[in-house]
């Protein structure tokens, strides 16, 4: 497990190899959840599936792109981060922490 941040803005990801492909699970905040799914396969555009009104794709898409750039194989990224009554500063910190996770892949 890879982590970044502390307290309410702590995020984590797990990388699982599935045959020759990779599934990445992202979570954090006060409650992890499934807020979206992103698929990146060779020679195709990124495909997304948002869940409800969650905005998790904003961090899931860059993770999928970073993982594809590093591994060059089919990537699925799933997950979500929730904080009750998050401030703008906390949201920005979560986004930065997710960028840090991407750099650690």
Question: Care to describe what's here?
Answer:
With 105 residues, the chain is of the alpha+beta class. It has a single domain, classed as Ribosomal Protein S5, domain 2, CATH 3.30.230.100. Helices cover 30% and strands 39% of the residues. It has two helices and six strands, in the order βββββαβα. A six-stranded mixed sheet has the order 1-2-3-6-4-5. A hairpin with a 6-residue loop joins strand 1 and strand 2 (11-18). The longest helix is centred in the last third of the chain and has 17 residues, at 88-104.
Number of domains in the coordinates? 1
CATH topology category name: Ribosomal Protein S5, domain 2
Per CATH, which architecture? Answer: 2-Layer Sandwich
Percent helix, as a range, is 25-40%
Q: Could you list the spans in which at least 5 consecutive residues all have pLDDT below 50?
A: none
Any idea what the radius of gyration is?
Answer: 13 Å
Number of strands: 6
The span between the termini is: 10 Å
Morphology: globular
Largest sheet: 6 strands, mixed
The percent range for strand residues is 35-45%
SS content category: alpha+beta
What is the helix tally? 2
């Amino acid at each position: 497990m890879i982590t970044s941040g502390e307290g309410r803005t702590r995020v984590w990801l797990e990388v699982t190899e599935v045959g020759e492909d990779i599934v990445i699970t992202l979570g954090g905040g006060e409650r992890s959840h499934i807020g979206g799914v992103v698929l990146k396969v060779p020679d195709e555009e990124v495909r997304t599936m948002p869940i409800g009104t969650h905005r998790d794709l904003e961090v899931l898409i860059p993770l999928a792109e970073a993982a594809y750039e590093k591994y060059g194989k089919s990537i699925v990224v799933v997950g979500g981060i929730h904080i009750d009554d998050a401030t703008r500063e906390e949201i920005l910190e979560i986004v930065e922490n997710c960028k840090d996770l991407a750099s650690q892949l």
